[in-house]
Amino acid sequence: MTPPAALSDLRQRIAAADAELESQFWAGADIDALVRSRAAFFDRFIDDLWHAIPWPADAASKLALFAVGGYGRGELHPHSDIDLLILVDADPAEFRSGIESFVQNLWDLKLDIGHSVRTVEQCHDEAKDDIELLRLRGRSHRHPRRAARHVACNPAAVALPSVACGRRRSGAAEQSEKVNA
């Protein structure tokens, strides 16, 4: 759990970014650029929180954090939830304490998060199920859960399922300079 003083600093960091984006909004900035900038800010912010966790030594080769849903597409509107996938190439119980601390920090910051913890095998199985659902429903467009991009740790170190957890980066990175970290 993050100490109260640190939580206050982190909340101020979020408030400053929100204020900057609001100022840009009222100045007539492009809305698409603003939602990408907000996603980019939270990419850096969440990455910082992730790396503040005292993970076991082998975590970098067995864990990866992905943005999914709208956030995974690099679109984060004000008051939108932040959907995260914690992908584990091991028994998740090995990393339970760190995962709990990370999620608790997000909750303590009053962020509206959705999260899941999946093994690589579970992700493969879910991808197979999703493909079958898409075929059964006759949909030709991409399922929203397909939108996933790497936020923290080394995605190459984890045997990522290519269908369920793509590595496509959104335009969020290009917008990162517009919002103070």
Describe this structure in words.
The protein is an alpha+beta fold. 48% of the residues lie in helices and 14% in strands. It contains 7 helices and 4 strands; from the N terminus they run αααβαβαβαβα. The chain has helices spanning 4-26, 31-51, 59-62, 69-72, 96-108, 120-137, 172-175, and strands spanning 63-68, 82-88, 113-119, 148-152. A 4-stranded mixed beta sheet has the order 3-2-1-4. β2 (82-88), α5 (96-108) and β3 (113-119) form a beta-alpha-beta unit. The longest helix has 23 residues, at 4-26. The radius of gyration is 17 Å and the shape is globular. The protein starts with a helix and ends in a 6-residue tail after the last helix. The model is unreliable at 132-146 and 160-181 (pLDDT under 50).
Total number of beta strands:
4
N-to-C series of helices and strands: HHHEHEHEHEH
Strand order of the largest sheet: 3-2-1-4
Output mean pLDDT. 78
Strand content: 5-15%
Taken from the alpha-carbon principal axes, the silhouette is globular
Q: Can you give the helix content as a percent range? A: 40-55%
| Main pleated-sheet profile | 4 strands, mixed
Structural class by secondary-structure content: alpha+beta
Gyration radius, in Å: 17 Å
Please count the helical segments.
7
Low-confidence stretches: 132-146, 160-181
Distance between the termini: 22 Å
- Multimeric organization: single chain
